[in-house]
């Protein structure tokens, strides 16, 4: 029986090389979703490239609070600590979510198909509530975007401690999102150390073997580039090389995996 997999490339528009790699993988049929950092100065010029491919992939907002573009940001440690202590300002976070949703729509021409978060900040306490409220304001009666549920992480990758921390800080996100009638991804994978020494091909084999039908796996590919501002640049090149290779296509055939867009209506029925 064929398993449908949503394979999502994060960080579209972060840089030209990252975006070019993602577009190439979309054209090759190796991705079925990508999420965009719409605060990037590259987003206005690249949005059209994605829109031209919107019939083939889900296009989402990669909600960002940690990657600096034109404005200073707080590090992930700040959001982790303050969210667990419930010491974050709901109203300003809602306004930030609205601003990013609006910038996405301004250049893409419509609202995103889904929302996830850079370093999973969208699923942290307080931030998640602000995001839920922003979505409700902008979508009104339209079908709501589906959401990535990091607490449904189904495989620890090569870093069990990192996986444990993620599940812990995002606990109950999926339950709370579904209570607000959002479709959510029922199984999540793709987390690993993101080090150049990691066995990405071996990890992908493990993720595909473990994942059920309608799973979502994130990835971070990009065309190889020397980018001192990107701490995972080397890993992006390795991911791109593997995902564009015949070996990955053969793995999908062997595991009976079909790379497909997510279907929120099926998620609602399963829930």
UniProtKB/TrEMBL annotation:
UniProt keyword terms in alphabetical order: Carbohydrate metabolism, Hydrolase, Magnesium, Metal-binding
Cofactor(s) needed: Mg(2+)
UniProt xrefs under InterPro entries: Glyco_hydro/deAcase_b/a-brl (IPR011330), YdjC-like (IPR006879)
Keyword Cell membrane annotated: no
PANTHER family to which the protein is assigned, alphabetical: CARBOHYDRATE DEACETYLASE, YDJC DEACETYLASE FAMILY MEMBER
Protein name, UniProt field: ChbG/HpnK family deacetylase
Record organism: Chromobacterium phragmitis
Species classification: Bacteria, Pseudomonadati, Pseudomonadota, Betaproteobacteria, Neisseriales
């Amino acid at each position: 029986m064929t398993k449908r997999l949503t394979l999502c490339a994060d960080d579209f528009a972060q840089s030209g090389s990252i975006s070019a790699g993602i577009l190439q993988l979309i054209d090759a049929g190796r991705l079925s979703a990508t999420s965009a950092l719409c605060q990037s100065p590259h987003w206005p010029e690249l949005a059209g490239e994605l829109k031209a491919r919107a019939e083939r992939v889900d296009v989402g907002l990669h909600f960002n609070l940690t990657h600096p573009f034109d404005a200073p940001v707080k590090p992930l440690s700040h959001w982790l600590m303050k969210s667990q202590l419930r010491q974050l300002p709901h109203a300003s976070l809602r306004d930030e979510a609205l601003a990013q949703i609006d910038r996405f729509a301004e250049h893409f021409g419509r609202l995103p198909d889904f929302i996830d978060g850079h370093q999973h900040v969208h699923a942290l306490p307080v931030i998640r509530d602000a995001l839920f409220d922003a979505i409700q304001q902008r979508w009104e009666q339209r079908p709501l975007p589906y959401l990535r549920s990091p607490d449904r992480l189904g495989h620890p990758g090569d870093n069990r401690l990192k996986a444990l921390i993620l599940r812990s800080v995002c606990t109950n996100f999926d339950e709370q999102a579904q209570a607000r009638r959002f479709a959510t991804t029922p199984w999540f994978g793709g987390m690993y150390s993101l080090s150049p020494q990691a066995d990405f091909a071996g990890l992908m084999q493990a993720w595909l073997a473990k994942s059920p039908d309608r799973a979502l796996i994130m990835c971070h590919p990009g065309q190889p580039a020397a980018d001192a501002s990107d701490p995972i640049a080397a890993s992006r090149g390795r991911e791109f090389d593997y995902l564009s290779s015949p070996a990955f296509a053969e793995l999908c055939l062997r595991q009976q995996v079909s790379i497909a867009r997510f279907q929120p209506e099926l998620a609602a029925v399963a829930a």
